[in-house]
Protein backbone atom coordinates (compact mmCIF):
# COMPACT_ATOMS: atom_id res chain seq x y z
CA UNK A 1 0.00 0.00 0.00
CA UNK A 2 1.24 3.43 -0.91
CA UNK A 3 0.77 5.48 2.23
CA UNK A 4 2.53 8.43 3.77
CA UNK A 5 2.21 10.54 6.88
CA UNK A 6 3.59 13.77 8.22
CA UNK A 7 3.11 15.23 11.65
CA UNK A 8 4.20 18.85 11.73
CA UNK A 9 4.10 20.78 14.99
CA UNK A 10 5.68 24.22 15.17
CA UNK A 11 5.20 27.25 17.38
CA UNK A 12 2.60 28.39 14.82
CA UNK A 13 0.65 25.27 13.80
CA UNK A 14 -0.12 21.65 14.65
CA UNK A 15 -0.85 19.31 11.73
CA UNK A 16 -1.30 15.58 11.29
CA UNK A 17 -1.54 14.58 7.62
CA UNK A 18 -2.06 11.11 6.13
CA UNK A 19 -2.16 10.18 2.43
CA UNK A 20 -3.24 6.88 0.91
CA UNK A 21 -2.50 7.13 -2.81
CA UNK A 22 -4.45 3.95 -3.52
CA UNK A 23 -7.56 5.43 -1.95
CA UNK A 24 -8.16 2.74 0.64
CA UNK A 25 -7.92 5.25 3.49
CA UNK A 26 -10.49 7.60 4.86
CA UNK A 27 -10.78 11.22 3.90
CA UNK A 28 -11.33 13.78 6.59
CA UNK A 29 -10.36 17.42 6.45
CA UNK A 30 -10.42 19.72 9.47
CA UNK A 31 -8.27 22.86 9.61
CA UNK A 32 -10.81 25.33 10.97
CA UNK A 33 -10.71 27.26 7.68
CA UNK A 34 -14.00 26.37 5.90
CA UNK A 35 -13.05 27.36 2.33
CA UNK A 36 -9.63 25.74 2.63
CA UNK A 37 -11.26 22.57 3.98
CA UNK A 38 -13.65 22.61 1.01
CA UNK A 39 -10.75 22.88 -1.45
CA UNK A 40 -8.75 20.11 0.23
CA UNK A 41 -11.85 17.91 0.11
CA UNK A 42 -11.98 18.51 -3.67
CA UNK A 43 -8.31 17.53 -3.92
CA UNK A 44 -9.00 14.28 -2.06
CA UNK A 45 -12.18 13.39 -3.92
CA UNK A 46 -10.95 14.11 -7.45
CA UNK A 47 -7.54 12.48 -6.93
CA UNK A 48 -9.15 9.36 -5.49
CA UNK A 49 -6.59 9.42 -2.68
CA UNK A 50 -7.47 8.92 0.94
CA UNK A 51 -6.40 12.17 2.58
CA UNK A 52 -6.63 13.09 6.20
CA UNK A 53 -5.68 16.58 7.35
CA UNK A 54 -6.17 17.43 11.00
CA UNK A 55 -4.70 20.81 11.76
CA UNK A 56 -5.05 23.99 13.70
CA UNK A 57 -3.40 27.32 13.96
CA UNK A 58 -1.62 27.97 17.25
CA UNK A 59 -1.05 31.65 16.53
CA UNK A 60 -4.34 32.49 14.80
CA UNK A 61 -2.65 33.26 11.46
CA UNK A 62 -4.21 31.46 8.48
CA UNK A 63 -1.12 32.00 6.33
CA UNK A 64 0.97 29.76 8.60
CA UNK A 65 -1.65 27.00 8.69
CA UNK A 66 -2.11 26.92 4.90
CA UNK A 67 1.63 26.96 4.23
CA UNK A 68 2.32 24.21 6.77
CA UNK A 69 -0.56 22.14 5.37
CA UNK A 70 1.11 22.32 1.96
CA UNK A 71 4.45 21.28 3.44
CA UNK A 72 2.96 18.37 5.39
CA UNK A 73 0.77 17.16 2.52
CA UNK A 74 3.73 17.31 0.13
CA UNK A 75 5.95 15.32 2.48
CA UNK A 76 3.26 12.70 3.11
CA UNK A 77 2.61 12.37 -0.63
CA UNK A 78 6.33 11.98 -1.36
CA UNK A 79 6.57 9.27 1.31
CA UNK A 80 3.57 7.47 -0.20
CA UNK A 81 5.20 7.45 -3.64
CA UNK A 82 8.45 6.02 -2.29
CA UNK A 83 11.11 5.69 -5.00
CA UNK A 84 8.42 6.44 -7.62
CA UNK A 85 9.22 3.32 -9.60
CA UNK A 86 6.31 1.87 -11.55
CA UNK A 87 4.16 5.01 -11.81
CA UNK A 88 3.02 6.81 -14.94
CA UNK A 89 4.97 9.88 -13.78
CA UNK A 90 3.17 12.43 -15.98
CA UNK A 91 -0.39 13.65 -15.60
CA UNK A 92 -2.56 16.35 -17.06
CA UNK A 93 -6.12 17.59 -16.83
CA UNK A 94 -8.39 20.14 -18.43
CA UNK A 95 -11.21 20.90 -16.00
CA UNK A 96 -14.22 23.17 -16.57
CA UNK A 97 -16.30 24.49 -13.71
CA UNK A 98 -19.06 26.65 -15.12
CA UNK A 99 -17.27 29.76 -16.44
CA UNK A 100 -13.82 28.57 -15.31
CA UNK A 101 -11.46 26.41 -17.33
CA UNK A 102 -8.13 25.28 -15.84
CA UNK A 103 -5.35 23.31 -17.50
CA UNK A 104 -2.76 21.42 -15.44
CA UNK A 105 0.28 19.37 -16.42
CA UNK A 106 2.63 17.83 -13.89
CA UNK A 107 5.60 15.52 -13.51
CA UNK A 108 6.21 13.35 -10.44
CA UNK A 109 9.82 12.80 -11.55
CA UNK A 110 11.41 14.16 -8.39
CA UNK A 111 12.27 17.72 -9.42
CA UNK A 112 10.53 20.80 -8.08
CA UNK A 113 9.21 23.58 -10.27
CA UNK A 114 5.91 25.43 -10.21
CA UNK A 115 4.22 27.86 -12.54
CA UNK A 116 0.81 28.69 -11.14
CA UNK A 117 -0.99 31.17 -13.40
CA UNK A 118 -4.55 31.26 -12.08
CA UNK A 119 -5.28 34.97 -11.61
CA UNK A 120 -8.59 35.89 -10.02
CA UNK A 121 -10.21 39.28 -9.58
CA UNK A 122 -10.62 39.09 -5.82
CA UNK A 123 -8.45 39.41 -2.72
CA UNK A 124 -10.51 36.86 -0.79
CA UNK A 125 -12.92 34.05 -1.58
CA UNK A 126 -15.19 32.88 1.23
CA UNK A 127 -12.72 34.27 3.78
CA UNK A 128 -9.68 32.62 2.15
CA UNK A 129 -6.92 34.97 0.99
CA UNK A 130 -6.53 34.23 -2.73
CA UNK A 131 -2.74 34.64 -2.65
CA UNK A 132 -2.56 31.69 -0.27
CA UNK A 133 -3.76 29.26 -2.94
CA UNK A 134 -0.59 29.67 -5.00
CA UNK A 135 1.46 29.59 -1.80
CA UNK A 136 -0.19 26.30 -0.75
CA UNK A 137 0.58 24.68 -4.10
CA UNK A 138 4.18 25.96 -4.03
CA UNK A 139 4.67 24.45 -0.56
CA UNK A 140 3.05 21.19 -1.64
CA UNK A 141 4.95 20.84 -4.92
CA UNK A 142 8.30 21.73 -3.34
CA UNK A 143 7.94 19.17 -0.55
CA UNK A 144 6.60 16.48 -2.89
CA UNK A 145 9.30 17.18 -5.53
CA UNK A 146 6.76 17.82 -8.27
CA UNK A 147 6.95 19.91 -11.42
CA UNK A 148 3.57 21.62 -11.66
CA UNK A 149 2.09 23.92 -14.30
CA UNK A 150 -1.42 25.33 -13.84
CA UNK A 151 -3.13 27.84 -16.12
CA UNK A 152 -6.49 29.55 -15.98
CA UNK A 153 -7.72 29.52 -19.58
CA UNK A 154 -11.09 31.16 -18.85
CA UNK A 155 -13.09 32.26 -15.87
CA UNK A 156 -14.64 35.16 -14.03
CA UNK A 157 -16.00 33.77 -10.77
CA UNK A 158 -13.07 33.60 -8.30
CA UNK A 159 -14.56 30.64 -6.41
CA UNK A 160 -14.95 28.64 -9.63
CA UNK A 161 -11.43 29.48 -10.83
CA UNK A 162 -9.78 28.36 -7.59
CA UNK A 163 -11.90 25.25 -7.19
CA UNK A 164 -11.28 24.23 -10.80
CA UNK A 165 -7.53 24.51 -10.12
CA UNK A 166 -7.77 22.13 -7.15
CA UNK A 167 -9.84 19.67 -9.19
CA UNK A 168 -7.48 19.81 -12.17
CA UNK A 169 -4.41 19.29 -10.01
CA UNK A 170 -6.16 16.38 -8.28
CA UNK A 171 -7.01 14.67 -11.57
CA UNK A 172 -3.48 15.15 -12.90
CA UNK A 173 -2.01 13.72 -9.66
CA UNK A 174 -4.30 10.71 -9.95
CA UNK A 175 -3.14 10.05 -13.51
CA UNK A 176 0.57 10.54 -12.75
CA UNK A 177 0.55 8.36 -9.61
CA UNK A 178 -1.25 5.47 -11.33
CA UNK A 179 0.77 2.24 -11.31
CA UNK A 180 2.11 0.92 -14.60
CA UNK A 181 3.14 -2.53 -13.38
CA UNK A 182 6.78 -1.78 -14.26
CA UNK A 183 9.43 -2.32 -11.63
CA UNK A 184 11.61 0.60 -12.62
CA UNK A 185 11.27 4.36 -12.71
CA UNK A 186 10.01 5.93 -15.92
CA UNK A 187 13.28 7.63 -16.78
CA UNK A 188 16.26 6.85 -19.01
CA UNK A 189 18.52 7.64 -16.03
CA UNK A 190 17.32 4.54 -14.19
CA UNK A 191 16.11 6.37 -11.10
CA UNK A 192 14.63 9.72 -10.17
Description:
The protein has about 190 residues and is of the alpha+beta class. It has a single domain (about 5-175), classed as 2-Layer Sandwich (Ribosomal Protein S5, domain 2), CATH 3.30.230. The chain has helices at about 35-45, 60-80, 130-145, 160-175; strands at about 5-10, 15-20, 30, 50-55, 90-95, 100-105, 115, 125, 130, 145-155. The chain has a 4-stranded mixed β-sheet with strand order 1-2-4-3, covered by helices on one side. Strands 5-6-10-7 form a 4-stranded mixed β-sheet, covered by helices on one side. The chain is globular. The two termini are about 20 Å apart. The model has no long low-confidence stretch (mean pLDDT about 95).
Adjacency order of strands in the biggest sheet:
1-2-4-3
Total domain units: 1
Distance between the termini: 20 Å
> How many helices?
4
Based on the coordinates given, report the CATH architecture. 2-Layer Sandwich
The helix-and-strand class reads alpha+beta
Give the secondary structure arrangement, pairings included.
Layout lengths: L2 E7 L3 E8 L7 E3 L3 H14 L2 E8 L4 H20 L8 E8 L2 E8 L5 E5 L6 E2 L2 E2 L1 H14 L2 E8 L3 H20 L15
Parallel strand pairs: 3-4, 7-10
Antiparallel strand pairs: 1-2, 2-4, 5-6, 6-10, 8-9
Helix pairs in contact: 1-4, 2-3
Amino acid sequence: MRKGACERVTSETALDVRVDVDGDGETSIATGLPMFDHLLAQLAFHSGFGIRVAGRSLDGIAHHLIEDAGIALGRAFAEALGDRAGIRRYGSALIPMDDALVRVALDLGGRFFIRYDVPVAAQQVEGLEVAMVAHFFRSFACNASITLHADLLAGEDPHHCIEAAFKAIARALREAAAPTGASQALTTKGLF
